[in-house]
Every structure is written in C-alpha cells, then in structure tokens.
Amino acid sequence: VQLQESGPGLVKPSQTLSLTCTVSGDSITTSYYYWTWVRQAPGKGLEWVSAIKWNGGSTYYAEPMKGRFTISRDNAKNMVFLQMNSLKPEDTAVYYCKAWLRRDYWGKGTLVTVSS
User: pLDDT digit string (tens) for 3-37?
Assistant: First the structure.
C-alpha cells in the first residue's frame, strides 16, 4: 500500500486546515487496517495524533488533540482526512499518514507551519 499526504503548508494561528491522505494499492476498508496520523515537530520525536479503523467504526485521538482535530475517511475516494481546528504555533510539524496491517506503511509527510 502507498500513502500520499497533501494539504496547505502554511496557516495562521486559530485557523483551520485539512490534510488528505490518498491511499493506493489497497482499499481503506480492507480488514484490519488502522489508518493513522503521526506528526514530528522540528527537533522533536514522533507524536501519534489520531487513528481510524478500517470499518470507520472507531476513532482515536491523542489527548492534546481531542476537540480540535477530527479524523475521517471517504471510502469511495480511498482517502483519509485530518481536519485541524484552532491551530497553534506548536502544531507546526511534518504530518505523516501511516497505515498498519501486520506492519507499518508510511507516507513521505507534509509540512504544516502555523505562523502569523
């Protein structure tokens, strides 16, 4: 499976931004994939952000993201999305789309910069 992230690179604090993960090579509804967003801020380690199951029945968020971020999917387009509201400068990071099914599959990442 191949993953490609996309989205606007620069936003101002308090604004909203949506990221898209375009999946190819397999269906996002294939059992038992977990579709995940992970980020890495400059000079820091990887931070798990959010996940959604292959059947779309459950979503998961890291505590700092609850209430601000929303993960969703479009089965017809084979895409996974991450909507981020009320963005803060500390949300600046490279955001990766990751899939797990017996092993991890990673996209190349997309840089999100939150700055005025």
Answer: 999 998 899 999 999 999 999 999 999 999 999 99
Report how far residue 53's alpha carbon sits from residue 1's, in angstroms, rounded to the nearest whole number.
16
Tally Cβ neighbours within 10 Å of residue 86: 12
CA-to-CA distance for 109 and 7, rounded, in angstroms?
10
Q: What are phi and psi of 65, to 5 degrees?
A: -95, -15
How many helices (H) and strands (E) the chain has is answered by 0, 11
* Cα distance between residue 25 and residue 61, in whole Å: 26
The residue type of 69 is F
Bond preceding residue 61 cis, omega within 30 of 0: no
Reading the block at residue 10, the tokens are 């620069």
Q: 42, 1, 40, 41: which is closest to 21 by C-alpha?
A: 1
